[in-house]
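Sanity check

After download, print the first record. It should look like this:
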Amino acid sequence: MTAFLPPHLLRLFTPAQPLTYLPHPEPAKHDRKYRTQMGFGGISQYVSLFEETPPPPATKGEKRVVREARKQAAREARSEAKLTEGKATWDPSTDPNAADSDAFKTLFVGRINHEISESQLQRKFETYGPIKRCKLVFDKITAKPLGFAFVEFEHERDMHDAYKHGDGMKIEGRRVIVDVERGRTVKSWLPRKLGGGLGGTRRGAPHECIKTSGRVDGGSSAGSSSRRDSSTGGSSGYSDRRDDRGYERRDSSSRGGSSYSSSSGRDRDRDRDRDRDRDRDRDRDRDRDRGGGRDRDRDRR
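Expected structure tokens:
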């Protein structure tokens, strides 16, 4: 019957070639028969040599919560040791950059635009009096500005005017804060990197910091209390404010107690006008930004 099939179907019924005979391979080294032939056996002959002491207790792995708490405690200990060492070695009077400057004539300026130059900053504060030196502070490693500077005036009264009226001044699009140089004028003063400073925006964890920027404790509270005392009690606020900054204590008679107490109202009105102008500028900038966003959306559509 298969004789009538075509060749391609007859090929299906053709028997295949016989399998090639291969000799039996040698046993592998991990084979039990091979180990027995080579003299390898179990450990039963060595059991009598084992120690008869009970096994050590089982150790449990450290939980994640415990591990994170241990690491956090170690970080806090290292940070506390670093702060202690920094407080012991910190001495602003030995700073070579401020060796030939007068601390009672120097004004601290913070939150400066990083693109501003010393000459531009000096021109802004020259309205209060002649300036002897203007020094921007840069990072020692990256050589980038840190956002604050020290301005030394020729006269101490000019520094007082700049400290009183320069706070909140807008320079190159940013409002700056001014303060006296507390490092060399206030005893037991510490910078923010050593746990001191004014304000509470960088105290540590988010729940420890305040949300509003500015000097909310220390200097601002002292300044506000001095203004209240000066408005109610004549020149006592002026003396307290000067003592808090480390200046010499002056009597009201040297400035004229009645004239100074009467000028506290004018100072308060001037501060109120300055705050009103600052809020007006902020609202104007916000409206301008909002209007520019609408124009960009209109152009995009």
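If your output differs, re-run the checksum step. Summary of this record's structure: DSSP finds nine helices and six strands in the chain.
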